[in-house]
User: Fold this.
Amino acid sequence: MSQAKAQDPAPHTREWTPRIVAFLCNWCSYAGADLAGTGRNQYPPSVRVIRVPCSGRINPIYIIKALVDGADGVMVSGCHPGDCHYLAGNFYARRRFTVLKRLLTTMGLSPDRVHFTWVSASEGARFAGVVREVTEKVAALGPSRIMKGGDMDEL
Amino acid sequence: MAISKDVMRGFLAHLSAGRTLIGPVDTGKVIEYRKASPNEILMDDRVSYKSIKEFYFPQVERMFTFSEGEVQDHDNPAGCAIFGGKPCDLEALRVMKAVFTTGKFADPFFERRFDANLLIGVGCIAKKPGCFCDQVEVDMAFSDFCDIMLEDSGEGYNVEYLSEKGRQALNEYPPTKDVACGNTRKADPPQADALALSPAITEAGFFEAIDWAKSTETCQGCGLCSFICPTCHCFDFRDSSENGTVHRYKCWDSCIYPKFTLHASGHNPRESRAARYRQRLLHKYRYVPDNFGLTACTGCGRCVRGCPVGMDIRQVVKQVMEVQP
Amino acid sequence: MSFEKQRDEVAALCKKLLADGAVSRVVGFREGGVEGMSLPYIFTDPAGVDMLTWNSRCLPNLNGYLTGGEGNTAIVAKPCDARAVVALISEKQLRREDIHIIGLVCDGMVDANGDPLPACVECSVNCPPVYDDLIDDPDVAEKTGGEQVSNDTSLERFEAEIDKCILCFSCRQACYGCYCQTCFMDRGSPGWQPTVPGRGDKMLYHAGRTMHLAGRCVECGACENACASGVDIRYLIREVTNFVGELYDYRAGMDLDARPAMLSYAAGDREVGFLGGDGDGH
Assistant:
């Protein structure tokens, strides 16, 4: 059954780089990522960006699902508190993410697998910096083994 | 032949050299059947919260794998030696065998495990709270639907073999070489106060027989009863694909879940919890008896003990029994 | 005072409520379960109230039975049941005027062996915070705080717990807070569940459910009591509940007018564990 799970590239074929799912809000962080591109700010190609309308739209289950399905790390970014396009979406998100992070660490996940931050549309350089920092931290942990094994059909 | 429990442990140690040994283990919170060493296996009269069915019909079983132009069967299971199946579990296995292997379609996955496993049954000394094997004609101390049957005297076991597989296994271990065949012994179930539904009533008659909604109003619909039931055998197929290879799995399902009968159109023929409970009850007490001549409830009492809100299938069956044709 | 005396008072009160037509249903307990367990029962007839019982084995949380039926409903409420009613009212699932809370001062329930249940040992609320009638028991000493339990937060512990789980969802069904019409685990589109039941499935379920209950748990322990497999998954929600209490000063079901923690915010909320946030977790 373990073969059925997402496999990391075998070490001898390709150097392992972390796969990080990034949820970015449409109005600030996604534009910030765009600016990082137009501004030629270098950052590692380890993130897979998913654009969402607002950080408040991110169901915590998205993040859990990404981890379950084999992401090595997850990062979430939205507008700075007070700057939400929908006025208060990121305020609700902030409470949710704070609690989710505590839950994930209670479950025994390393706190460095999941990252939350705020990046505005004008912070291209900061976005690149955040991705570098997150990639470094996740890379230091190595491939995720979350929920590998323990399948129910082993007998 | 009477042997001590220490000799039985020796026999299990001998078995564990060649097979995966399964037996009831006290995990601190519950008793469950799992891979175990001969020394941790319980030999007292306590009973596990789940039955032995998962070693014949696992919660998740890979059936086959296919990629482009190629289908690969899942390997044959190696087979386990299962110690401590209670007579209710063994009789339940008889029901499972009938369901999975008779008629037009046989289930090879069940069959393979059935052939590969060595099953050692152990009789009960006393009824536990919630047990009602005596009401469904199951002998608490003996069943012949296994390879080796042990009747528990408290101090030791009276051992008999009931199949060639059982005889060979006992023969290989010197202290149990001379065990006799138990096929002369017959199960002797009590006959009083039986729970059974009258064949005179039509199926539709049962549908309106009692106020099902009132009788099942406290059921929470969790489906725990069907997961821990030794005879519940409904399953669902699920596929998982990865890089062009698809695995097909057979997974437990339960008629208590609303999704069980949900049609693609959105229509659900068993919309209410009461209708689903009724299905589970009638399946056990009417449909399987009609189709296979066996009652699909062996009185193990696990659903009665395990139910978070104390639903008791006996009481509902009794209400239905009072209905006149 | 004792269970018997409380029982007689409750029964008299329920009889009166039903006879007067103040309520049309009383959700309470009757005897008859195995191993001394009391069974939830919905009383609609004053004469039937003779069956009503109140003892140390009234385990299930009764909030699943409050809706449905015509007219008002009375609930024989342990402190945790009463908290759940309050939480449901603040989430607009019930209307205060439809529910008559018969609150009972409670010293905790016991398991089949007579040992106190873990959730009851940790419980710090032995008097319902909101009620219409209170059935007191002067012998129950006022609690100042439940027993503190330290959490092992290793991945090994989590894996060991979920490996026992058989995904029957009885914890969900037993929980007052799981009232979604269709649980995310049961959805076909989008299908959240990994196709094959395994650890991933269980992690998704338990983590997802705990998030849904964040700041809503009334600490009744129904999830744990319902579990036939002996999974102690309650440690997750316990940690989250304490964390929410600490950070946002909120406990579910204690106050009808308080806004649930996860449905509100403050401009100055701490960002514990955020990149560049205020520490803890980093």
In short: Chain A has one domain: 17-141. Residues 1-6 of chain A have pLDDT under 50 and may be disordered. Chain A has four helices and four strands. Strands of chain A lie at 20-25, 47-52, 73-78, 114-118.
